[in-house]
Structures are given as C-alpha cells and as structure tokens.
Amino acid sequence: MPERLAIAVLTGGYSEEAPISRKSAAMVMNHIDADRFDATLVHVDPDGWWAEIDHARVPFDHESFTVAGKNFDGAFIVIHGTPGEDGRIQAQLEALNIPHTTGDAKCMAMTFHKGKTTDFLREHQIAVAQSIRIENNESWDGDAIEKLIGFPCFVKPNEAGSSFGISLVETRAALSDAIQKALGTGGGGALVETFLQGREFTIGVIPDEQGAPMALPVTEIRTDRTYFDYEAKYGGESEETTPANIDDSVRQEMQAQAIAVYKATACRGMARVDAIWMNREVPTVIEVNGIPGFSEVSISPKQAEAAGISKTALITRIIEQTILKK
User: Fold this and answer.
1) pLDDT given for residue 232 in this prediction
2) Is the pLDDT of residue 91 over 90?
3) Residue 219 in contact with residue 307, Cβ under 8 Å?
4) What is the pTM of this model?
5) Is residue 227 part of a domain?
6) Would you call 139 exposed, middle or buried from its count of C-beta atoms within 10 A (0-12, 13-18, 19+)?
7) For residue 230, what pLDDT band results from cuts at 50, 70 and 90?
8) Quick one: what percent of the chain has pLDDT higher than 90?
9) What is the CATH number of the domain that holds 27?
C-alpha cells in the first residue's frame, strides 16, 4: 500500500468566524479518505498554533510547519476570515514551498476584500452592484452616497465574512452609525453598496477531474428576514433549494458567470460565487468566497452531493487538483 499523504487541516483563525471554521474542519476530518491521507487537525489560535494528536494538545511550529518532528505534504485550509482567507497563511506556506488547497496569497487577499473584489470584477466586465469604498480614517460624503447609491443600501465591512458587521440602511439618518459599525469590524474599511431587489443564488465552483473549473448546481436562498444575515445563514432562518427552480438558460448563465469569476480572480480548489438575479437581467455578483463554508450542513458540499459527488470524493478531488498537482 502506498504511503499516505500527510495533510494538515488548518482551522480556527483570529476572527469571529473561528467557530464556523471548526465545524468545517470537523467535516474534513470526518470524511477525508483515511486510506490515502494522513490528516492532522491543526488549530490556528490567537495564542498559538497547536495540533490534536492522540487526543492531546501538541504545540505546532508554524515557522517550519512541523509538529513533533512531523513534516506535511500539504495544507487543507478551512479557516474562514483572517489569517486563512486573507492570504496570510498562503504567503507563509508559499514561502515554505508547501502546497495548499486555495488560491495563492494575492488571490486570497483580493477576494477577502469586498471593495477590491467588486472593483476588480467591474474592470473585467462582470456585473456588480454600484458601490463606494470608504477606507479607515477617511471622510465620507453622505450627499455623494445618496446620489450614487441611494436608499435603501447595504453598508458592509470590507474584510469580514458570515454577514458580521453588515447593515441594511433605509434612511440617510441611519447611515453614519452603519458606517461606523462596518469600520469597526474586520479593519479593512467599509463598502456602501446599492440594495438589489431580486432572488439570491449561490454557485459553487470546484476543479473537475482534469483540473478545469466546474460549476456545481445552483442554489437559491430564501429567508423571511430582511436579508441573508448571520441568523439566516446559521440559525436555520433560511430555505435553500438545490438545484434551484430556474430555467436552464438562467442556470447556465449563472454557472458560466461563476466560472468567469473563478478564473478572473485566480481561485483554486473550492470557491463560491453569490449573485442576485433581478427581472431576468444579467445576474449581479455580490460576493466571492475563496474559502466557503464546508460543514456538514454547508451549501457547497450539498451542491456537490446534488452533482453526485460525495463529501469524501469532494475532499479527495480538491486535494488531488491542488496539493498533488502543485
């Protein structure tokens, strides 16, 4: 039997998304093919890195990326938020020549920043919402926001996921508090964005068996809440339909758009593109997730299963087309 590939499954992180990351990592550890891969769970915490080995907490040397003298063939990154989704860990791994399962440091740094991603996609003729970026310690013009964006609008932190720090602003009077809230979340400034009234969809993209990007079945997300916020995502206050009840032509358009986004931003492994579809217009991209949720109940694994790809096969596919090909 060939020697198993040593894989570090990186979880945790320094943001409010750490609990979600741990659920994603648990899914990987539960479903990874143990005959082919020797997986070690590695926690990346603010007070240090450590590995779970034989039910014990063992210090992890992140500078050499080793634990108890053990080296790794690659890293499966499921850290949502900093430092896994913003390019920091990717930069460290690339300096050590250790392959991993996501886009490179440049890709991740951009896709983690909502404003930079929106500007980049707009430059590449991919439909996005009208928006204004506000940097930290930068003054902002309420008149310009009202004229260009209008109300209602969304105010989002540029560098936060899981809908943390997002506000739906319906009046000019509520704008200042929403901007301050966003600026205080994530540290990457704020994005003021047009509110798009339409149906919300999300499309996962993974590599096919030859390594080319492949769109998964489209999911429609519905919620009785004002928008798809944290409670809707993780509190069971939303309804997901996979595959979405849409015409084939619309499905194909959304999948083609998701692949175009994946290619343009140089994503690797698994990514997810969220979009709003309004009155049969071109779908409008609202977010790119370089490390989407990967728990037992997350959307991307459900989409893969709808395409006939089990959780174990999906994990194997990602490792084969990123770590092994690297």
Assistant:
1) 44
2) yes
3) no
4) 0.90
5) yes
6) exposed
7) very low
8) 81
9) 3.40.50.20
- Is-contact 109 185, C-beta < 8 A? no
State the CATH number of the domain containing residue 289. 3.30.470.20
Is the residue at 56 inside a domain? yes
Separation of alpha carbons 285 and 150, rounded Å? 19
DSSP three-state, residue 249: helix
300 and 201 together in one domain: yes
CA atoms within 13 A on the CB side of 210: 2
Model confidence pLDDT, tens digit, residues 272-294: 999 999 877 789 999 999 999 99
Give the C-alpha separation, 3 to 175, whole Å: 58
The domain tally of the chain equals: 3
**What proportions of the chain, in percent to the nearest 5, are helix, strand and coil?**
30, 25, 40
**Residue 51 belongs to some domain of the structure:** yes
Cα–Cα distance measured from residue 8 to residue 255, given in angstroms and rounded to the nearest whole number: 31
CA atoms within 13 A on the CB side of 268: 22
CA distance 7 to 96: 15
Of the residues 194, 216, 234, the one at which a domain ends: 194
Q: 300 with 236, same domain?
A: yes
Residue 80, C-beta contacts closer than 8 angstroms, at least 6 positions apart = 13, 15, 17, 20, 21, 24, 161, 162, 291, 293
Q: What is the pLDDT of residue 255?
A: 98
Q: Are 210 and 197 in contact (CB under 8 A)?
A: no
Last residue of a domain, one of 194, 209, 235: 194
Residue 167 belongs to what domain range?
130-194
- Mean pLDDT confidence for 173-186: 88
- For residues 188 and 273, membership in a common domain is answered with no
In a domain, 118, yes or no: no
Q: Please, where are the H alpha helices in 149-202?
A: 175-183
- Tell me the pLDDT of the chain averaged across its residues: 92
